[in-house]
What we know:
Blueprint: E1 2-7, E2 9-15, E3 18-26, E4 29-43, E5 51-52, H1 77-83, E6 89-90, E7 98-107, E8 114-121, E9 128-134
Antiparallel strand pairs: 1-9, 2-3, 3-4, 4-7, 5-6, 7-8, 8-9
Amino acid sequence: MWEFDDAVEVHSVFVDGIETPDQFLWRGRLWRVTALRSQWTETAVWWERGVIGPGAIHDPRAQRPAQSDVLPARIDAAMVAEACSAAVGVLDADWGPERTVFRVEAGSGRYGRRELFDLAHDPVSGRWQLERVTDR
Length: 136
């Protein structure tokens, strides 16, 4: 299994009222979905949004900042990552609080080998992303 975070263009159709991928374009190749193997919804929890990694270490003995240096009520993940040298990265803020993942079997070309793909869809932004590819 290989893991990716590649944006993909997806043509979808509605099956039983659910938007389902029909074909997708990945790395210049058109893949046609032949079977939907499974589908699930992932919910982003607030503590996993924002900074990835340990971030800054809180030291209660450190001097309190002046009132002008106090962080705003809404913490912006990019601002935290910029201010904190220990941050490894920032989660993508374009994704909404939920996304649907489709595990599909797809093939490319007339006689192309079929593989399993995990395609994630954010219904808020309409964005699709390829997350995993599995050989069968």
